[in-house]
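Human: I wish I could look at a protein chain and see how it folds. This is the protein in question:
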Amino acid sequence: MKEKEIKEDQEAKADSKTAAETPVPQELGKKAKEAKETKASQKPQDSQDSDDSKEPAEEKEHEESLKEAIAKQAIEDEAPLSSSFTLRKILGGDILTAQVIRRQIWLIVLVVFFIIIYISNRYSIQQDMIEIDQLQEELQNAKYKALSSSSQITERSRESNVLKMLQNNKDSVLHIATQPPYIINVPENE
């Protein structure tokens, strides 16, 4: 008698665990309820031999119902999106369902294409700006060199500096004129 009560308690616990652990979709809910009712109605209470023979059959039915439930959940049939978008749906990621992605795939491809063009355009413009800065710096340096060399040439070509150079160079026959220059008049008739 005690053995029967122990087996019935174990079966009830197993049924409640499997019902709580496995989610059953609405379509399978009726089948699962019918299977539970048939299990409860088919339990013989007077002989142990009949309990042992029906347990494997019940386990097979239970495994089949679990397989069906898993197969139903694995199918990617999604419910259509509701027309109202709430913050919870957006933050929860319900917007990014496979159906929405499939419908908007060309828009997503176009946006990604424009983003790539935008990034590459910005990169090339940055490279051009760096090159322009380098060229402007080179131009500024060339202007400074030209200005400094021009000032050096002007300084060396002054009359006083030319005279100093002639005096320092003893080989030169050039010297400073002591008399002022005079004009020679040539008659035009001749």
User: Anything to note?
Assistant: The chain has a mean pLDDT of 76. The two ends are 166 Å apart (CA to CA). Residues 105-156 form the longest helix (52 residues). The helical segments are 2-21, 26-42, 48-74, 87-92, 98-103, 105-156, 159-168.
